[in-house]
Amino acid sequence: MTEHSSPRHTADLTEPAGLEGSVSADRSGANSGATPGDFGPSKDSALAIETEELVKHFGETKAVDGVDLAVPAGGIYGLLGPNGAGKTTMIRMLATLLQPDAGTARVFGHDVGADADAVRGRVSMTGQFASVDEDLTGHENLVLLARLLGYSRREAKARTIEQLEAFGLTDAASRQVKTYSGGMRRRLDIAASIVVTPELLFLDEPTTGLDPRNRSQVWEIIRALVANGTTVLLTTQYLEEADQLADRIAVIDDGRIVAEGTPRDLKASIGSGVLNVRVRDPGQREEARQALTRILNAPVKLESDPAALSARIADTNRIAHAFVELSQAEIAVTDFALGQPSLDEVFLALTDRDDRDTHTDRASRDGRDKAAAGGRSR
Amino acid sequence: MTTESGAEPDAERLRSAVSDQPRPPRPSALSASLTFGWRALLKIKHVPEQLFDVTVFPVMFLLLFTYLFGGALAGSTSAYLQELLPGILAMTVVFITIYTGITLNDDVDEGVFDRFRTLPIWQPAVIVGALLGDAVRYTIASTIVIALGLILGFRPDGGAVGVLSAVALLLVFSFSLSWIWTALGFVMRSPESLMATSMLVLFPLTFVSNVFVDPATMP
After folding, report:
1. What ipTM did this prediction achieve?
2. Where is the stretch described as Disordered (chain A) (predicted)?
């Protein structure tokens, strides 16, 4: 099912600027469940996660609808998608919290259904909501988990003190978690996930709702874990985060994987660069669009900002001409920048179904809702 | 409520948080259950309000019924107390069992349960531990009711041994009963609906039983 519809989906995007290459190739690699033995780049290394035609429906909703995923051991793998795309459902199935409706999922070769205990002994999970006990203190939470993981009473206390110190929570150790700030709570949550270093760590939107400083602290922890050999499966809505951290990314939308590859592959898939222009007078935007389209010979997109335009360009040489053209047409420009396409653009292009502009609006609205609601999604 | 801790972690210290020690052996079912029981006790320690139901309610019921209806139902308050106290004892503890289900229902909502479920432990330990913690609450409630009864003039026929074995029987009964609410706690959507359902079942049953009135006088 996936095999037929998704590549067609991907092909739509191909149009603007030669996408055929990397993304489609990687997709077929990820889909190799159908042709065993060919896992593309991860052929020789062991797989941390391997799913074949994984399906989970909730009533009418197809949360996960035939996902083939091959995540190599080591490094960070990003699962990227809008709200309700099926990311959390994927993680819950892989962490043995949900039974798949169809298909198979294996973690380090152990089936998540039949061999759940072996999976549980290797994974650890940090959900969208801090999964710590709000009534207990930070210290008690960590001791509780250390005891449950098999440490003796004395070892558990020692490990807890060590962790509280490292995560800057020593001062707050004897306070109930419900008095913690969002950043502290998230740090405690991550500490709770790594009381014992897991072989595979699921991080479900670990930085949602955090300020930039707390976010970079979380990134630091993730990098430290990876350096120690842990494989991380990260879901995120922040493309910057995926770009910064992930070695490979799968873009998931409507329960299916629509693209898979390295961040660089994905970015390359939509052209070599993006020109962003902002005009002083929004009334002149249409005029600017026509001028740019003519000179650049590429589709020009109107952004949701009423004064901004962007164009994906293959030939950077024409940019100087574009600038001259705009000034000759007496269109005042406040911003003129050439950049690599951001993962945002890749993301929107890949998860776009109908009209590009409405989707842009919807995505930015979702983003705000998400921030406001603290990020509750399926 | 959002006070930041003074010491912010830096990269170096965060890296030191990653343990390079080997994983300790898996805990036994008993050890895991006791750890969860410890968690239940910690919750009582931090939220002592939840002990209201095991302290205030039995006292209130015992005083109310003894002095309001005692004279009318049994001729004198002291005669009624002899009959009522064991019943109140049973009723109090039976009602507390509902909270076992409610606590679990809360846990499931909080996400902390997800973490417990992804741990490589004997899975029923979460429930057994919670029930063990509740057994402590039942004991507290029983002690309070009996102590108050003795002050008011209750004189048990069976003596100390009789009372202790009655309490022990009650604990076993409640422990068994709380499994029902626990099961419901997983099925029901919210703690409120669980509370309402359990009350709907327990309330009529308690009043129809011989706690308050001798069934022989019923139609």
Report:
1. 0.76
2. 1-44, 354-378
